[in-house]
Amino acid sequence: MARSMQDALTARGAHRCCSPVDLMLAATAHAEDLTVLHVDKDYSTVARYWPSFKQVRLDTGLPA
Question: Model pTM?
Fold first, then answer.
């Protein structure tokens, strides 16, 4: 799953947006159908390119 996310980001030129740890956490949350609560723009970027990834940016309280 993390590899698929990285491939999708790379195909769109956003391959440097996330650390390996962020990508693994995003992939695990996606696989388990969990929502990531964060204040890290990297997860917003993942959601932009991987629409089924669920996340809420806490500094706004809205899905980013």
Answer: 0.74
